[in-house]
Amino acid sequence: MSACTTVEMGSAIYRSAPLLQTPMEQVIRDAAPDCIFSDMFFTWTVDFAEEFNIPRLLFYPNNFLYHSISHSLRVYASHANVKSEFESFVVPDLPDKITMKRSQVSHLFVSKTHMGDMMERVRQSEECSFGVVHNTFYEIEPDCADNINKIKGKKVWHIGPLLSFLIAMAVLWRRNIVA
Question: Which of residues 160 and 7 earns the better pLDDT score?
Fold first, then answer.
C-alpha cells in the first residue's frame, strides 16, 4: 500500500483482495499451519481458520488511538448529535479528552459506503478471531493500549512500529503538533 499514490488506487487494491482468496487458500492448505496471521481485509480467513480448527490473528496496521476513537464513534455516534459540521463534540469513553468536529469524522461513520461495509465485515471477522495484533507499541500510547484491552475483551498484541510514518503521525497528532 505504500506505493499507492491516490485514494482510488488504494481502494482498487482493497477491492481486488478477494481475487487472492482461492490461491491463498491453496497455499494455506499446502502449508498446514498451526495459526493464521491475517491482514484485516482478508476476512475470509476466519472461515478458513474455523475449518482447520486453528486460531486466527487479525493484523491491523493502525495504532491503538485510532481504534479507540473508531470504537467510540461507532458505539456512541456522538457526531450525530451535533447540529453543524463545525460544531465540536467530545469523543466519549477515551482515556484522554479528545474533541472533534463532525467535519473531521470519516465518511465511514457518517454515511453508507462500500468501504464502510467492508470495515463492518472486518469488525465482524475480528469478533471471530483468537486475537488482534496492532502496529504500535505500548510505551508510545499506554492509556490507549489499556483502553483497547478493555474494549476488545480478547487477546491484543502490539508489534512495531512496522510503518514508522503512521506511528509518528499518531504521536504528533496526540500531542497536538499536527492537525
Answer: 160
Q: With contact defined as beta carbons under 8 Å apart, do 48 and 35 qualify?
A: no
Above 60 in pLDDT, residue 24?
A: yes
Instruction: Give the DSSP per-residue string, 93-159.
Output: S-SS--EEEGGGS-GGGTS--HHHHHHHHHHHHHHTSSEEEEES-GGGSHHHHHHHHHHH-SEEEEE
Q: Which domains does the chain have, with CATH numbers?
A: 35-174 (3.40.50.2000)
Entry pTM = 0.74
Q: Report the interhelical angle of 142-152 vs 64-76 (nearest 10°).
A: 50
pLDDT for 4: 61
Is it the case that residue 76 has pLDDT exceeding 50? yes
Question: For residue 145, how far is the Cα from the chain centroid?
Answer: 14
Q: How many CB atoms lie within 10 A of CB 96?
A: 12
Torsion of CA 129, 131, 135, 141, to 10 degrees: 130
Q: How many Å apart are CA 124 and CA 157, to the nearest integer?
A: 19
